[in-house]
């Protein structure tokens, strides 16, 4: 029987084969732990990419429905009045579909770690929804919807709406107001008082609805130009200047159209219709 080898300190000495087996077992355990860690990372990344794709798809669907609402609202010809029944039916149905889409996205955008992580995925659809909702609100009331009213429409505030998304949606609203104003101004309605009619002297004025939307656009422009956004806001700071330029161009188109009605229109005989084809081509 072979004896047990010990060191001078009295500890057991293992032969080379035993040491090699022990080393293999130790390395195998370490490799299993590392693979397990990376497996967890893989699963988290897969969930992350799936969530991003899911929210991007929802955002695109919301954008498409919001654009359909805007197209329907552009058929309206009155301001500060209830919408026609057929338009109300169309917009109500599509707003309900958008609400269901937000319900689907709610778990992915309200979790503590996801609220800001996936803001860029849902933001385009949210901004387009705010544009459609604010345009709908403006046609009915001729007022600008507030951020609190927007939040109340989105599942009673359950969907997070940032100030950045609200402002970007309002900037986009000016484009729809411009299209509505161009269509309204194309009627060429100029008001005259009774005294002007009797004296045959004309001081041209736009009709109240037309003058109102021109005034509203100019007021939005003045407020937007006074807006100061720090650089720390990142992507909003980059997008803001482009949005402001587009908004300014929209207001200038409406001002040129109003000029054509007031100044050039007053020099033409009764029944003359202003030529706004240039503005309409630019809008398209």
TrEMBL record:
Of the GO CC terms on this record, one is: cytoplasm
Q: Which CDD domains match?
A: TRAX
Q: Which UniProt keywords apply?
A: Cytoplasm, Nucleus
Gene Ontology terms for molecular function: sequence-specific DNA binding
Q: Where in the cell is it found?
A: Cytoplasm; Nucleus
- Listed Pfam families: Translin
InterPro entries the record matches: Translin_C, Translin_fam, Translin_N, Translin_sf
Protein family per UniProt: Belongs to the translin family.
Under which name does UniProt file this protein? Translin family-domain-containing protein
